[in-house]
Structures are given as structure tokens and as C-alpha cells.
Design goal:
By secondary structure, this protein is α+β, with helices and mostly antiparallel strands. Helices cover 42% and strands 12% of the residues. Strands 1-2-5 form a three-stranded antiparallel beta sheet. The C terminus is likely disordered.
Amino acid sequence: MFALTPVLVAIVCTLIAWIYKNADRSIERRKGELKARCESRPWVDEDLRDSTALHQVEEDADQWQESEEDTEHIPFPHTRYPEKEMVERSREFYELLSKRRSVRFISNEQVPMEVIDNVIRTAGTAPSGAHTEPWTFVVVQDPDVKHKIREIIEEEEEINYMKRMGHRWVTDLKKLRTNWIKEYLDTAPVLILIFKQVHGFAANGQRKVHYYNEISVSIACGLLLAALQNAGLVTVTTTPLNCGPRLRVLLGRPSNEKLLMLLPVGYPSTEATVPDLKRKPLAEIMDFWWLLGKEFAFETHSFPECCGYSAGFE
């Protein structure tokens, strides 16, 4: 009986050692997986990580303002156009926006500020989650402030190109002939920095939930791009990676605002060029459903001739 004790002790010691060894391996494996996930998305902007998740609302319920429940509903004024005019207006609008390009060579010629006011008003008509309108458009004209913005962005962008973005992303951008040098941040007469408000504040100081704030602000940015094109101005959509916190401090924005996009705005310079890129035809971006007898029929990338579409329509 007692002769087995050393054997049992040895077995127990071996078992303990095996457990600890496997635990260490598990920890190292988890660390490796976490590192791999981070390396697979080196371009994730730390400033855009935070948002208003629902569990945060539940945990801090006392700090959040209840939304208004009673809002008057009024008749909707609608202008209906004859079908022929609808087709013509839609075609003209498409032809206008089809000429929109990202322009990185921007003249220093001044633009009317009333135009800037109007395009931002247009962006502010965008739909938003629960009508929270979670956007702030910061307009910068001051040359010194513009140059400070350029210094911050170029410092971070050089790190992005050299380290954060990775070889694949940098390679994909070569056809656009872009790098971390952003001369247009100095030359463009106007910079518009678009911030998303991850939450708002009520008059009593309590926080207000901003649902789908990033999607809402992104829609507003799309309307802003269309309005700029309609006004005859050019821009290039930029998303300065990891520049948000420093730019927020520089511009005196509150902590609930996160930089989503920066648009240098102006007229194209006389030497402006753009890459000769082609957009996908309609057949590659739209799936079409049509009524066939009593049933709906669906076919991908193919349009019935009876409806005026063909696979090559653009």
C-alpha cells in the first residue's frame, strides 16, 4: 500500500504539470489569435471604435434622456411629375453625378461661402436614426489651421502607409498615385470635416442616444457630395486614419464627436488630372424583380426586354 505512494505522487505531479502546460499554451494561442485579428485589420481607426451600444444605455439608464413621444404629424406636400418629365429629370441627375470624380488637385481660388452654407444645409436634410441628426460639419478656411490639419494628417498618414495599412492596401492605391503628402489640405480654400456624434445631449444635460449614427452621417456625406457636384465644386473623400483625436482637440470639438470624413473643397486646378477609371454598368450593380403572371420572377444580372432593360444597359 505505502509502496504505491511515490507512484501516485509522481502521477499527480505529472498531471498538474500537464494542466499548467496546456493552460499556458491556451493563453498563448488566444494571444496569437488576438494579434492575428489586429494584424488582419491594421487600418482600424481607434477613434471610430466607440459608439452607443444598447447595453451601455441599459447600464447607465439614469444618465440618458427619454426621447419625445408626442410629435404632431402634418400632411405631406408632394409634387408629382408627369412620367416623361420624371424620366428626363432622373436621366439629367444621373448624367450630372456620373461626372463626379475624386480630385486631388484643387485651386486656391476662393468659393462663395453661401454655396458652402447651402451644400451643408442639403447634407443636413439626410434621414437619421430616430431623427437624431447626429452630425457636425466643421468648416475651416483659416490658412494656419488648415496647415496644422495637414501636419497632423501627413504625420499619421506616413505611419499608415509604412506600417498600418499593409502591403495589399498600399499596392491597391498605386493606380490612384496617392501617398501621405496632402498638398490639397493647404491649397483648397475650404476644408469640411464631418464628425459623427456618438450620442447627443438634452437641454438638462442628460445624454441622448444617437441610433445608427455612423450610417446616418454617411448618408449625409453622400448628399453633401452630390450637392457639391451640383454646385460645380470638386472634392476628394478622405478618411484620415488615426487622426481623429488630435483633429478633434485642434478644432475644439467635444469628446462625443468622432471624425468620420474630411473633404477639401474648391475648384479644380488647371493641371488637375484623374485616373481613367470605369464604373460598373447597371447590370453588375442591380438585381431586378418583375411581375410575371401571378408570381414574382427573379434573375440575377439579367433584365427582361419587355421592361426596357438588357444585360448591357448602362
